[in-house]
Design goal:
Layout: H1 9-27, H2 31-43, H3 56-70, H4 75-92, E1 98-101, H5 103-106, E2 115-120, H6 124-133, E3 139-144, E4 151-160, E5 167-175, E6 194-195, H7 197-210
Parallel strand pairs: 2-5
Antiparallel strand pairs: 1-2, 1-6, 3-4, 4-5
Helix pairs in contact: 1-2, 1-3, 4-7
């Protein structure tokens, strides 16, 4: 009787992570969608169990590697612009306790990335009034609570980069003040999952010192 071929789960996870990273970097897919699509590409029509799938940390590592190889000519400058815009809006929204999160914070933001801010304020209505008074038209939708506790109201709109005239997406997830308790713990690698404006300013200062324009 012929033996069944041995398939190494570690290698499968690696192939899926590499394929998912390309989808994130080139097509702007979120990690979950990229993982599903990459798993289908690698395995065909088979549905894979969780033991065959990479976690988000592995995909993020492959995104960084992909960007270093294929996007090194523009990604660092783009990241700096996105962080500058994020900081400008955090300063404008200072009354609502904003924190930066997502790819713009962790450094993997690319040409398809939006800016994600989380506001910890007990009056979502005040945020909406602020935007309306500023003449900003926004859409209302819901995003998953970072701690898995249901959904939170999110206001999304486009902002124009004065340097390039490009339009960029900005999303404001509206949390209550109490949600900030425990929110500043690090991720699985001990890195902050969200930071306030001073930390964003520090990141920009470090980038400017390392790579002056």
């Amino acid at each position: 009787m012929a033996r069944k071929p041995f398939i190494d789960p570690h290698r499968v996870r690696e192939e899926i992570a590499i394929a998912a990273a390309r989808l994130v970097a080139e097509d702007g897919l979120d990690y979950a969608s990229a993982k599903r699509k990459a798993a289908k590409q690698v395995s065909g029509e088979l549905r894979l169990g969780s033991e065959w799938l990479p976690d988000n940390d592995q995909i993020e590592a492959e995104v960084r590697a992909y960007q270093a190889i294929f996007h090194s000519d523009f990604q660092p400058a783009l990241l700096r612009v996105l962080r500058q815009i994020a900081l400008e809006w955090m300063q404008r929204l200072a009354a609502f306790n904003p924190f930066l999160t997502g790819a713009v914070l962790n450094g993997t933001a690319g040409e398809h990335s939006d800016i994600h801010l989380q506001l910890f304020n007990d009056s979502a209505k005040d945020v909406a009034i602020f935007l309306l008074n500023a003449g900003i038209q926004y859409e209302v939708h819901e995003t998953r609570h970072f701690a898995g506790r249901g959904l939170v109201e999110t206001l999304s709109f486009l902002v124009r980069d004065k340097r390039t005239e490009a339009l960029l997406g900005l999303h404001l997830a509206l949390y209550e003040s109490n949600d900030l308790r425990g929110a500043l713990r690090g991720d699985t690698r001990g890195r902050p999952s969200r930071v306030a404006a001073p930390a964003v300013a520090a990141l920009l200062a470090e980038e400017t010192a390392a790579h002056p324009l």
